[in-house]
Amino acid sequence: MTKHAIQLAASAALLLGLASPSFAEVKLNENFSVSGYIEGSYQLTDPDPGTSTDKFGLDSAQLLFTGSFKPVTGVASFFYVPNAPQETTLLDAYVTYDAGGGLSITGGKFLSYLGYESFFTVNNPEITFANGDFLAAIPGYHDGVKLDYSTKDWGAGVALLDSVGSPFYLKGDGELKHNAGFEGYFSYKAVTDLTLWFGAAYDTKGGFLAHSNTVYDVWAQYAMDKKTTVAAEYAYRDGGLGAKGYNWLGLVTYAFTDKFSTAFRLSGEKMSSGGPGFIRYTIAPGVAVTSNLTVRAEVTYTDYDKSALNNAVFVGAQAFLKF
Question: With b meaning 16 or more CB within 10 Å and e meaning fewer, what string describes 190-201?
Answer without folding.
Answer: eeeeebbbebbb
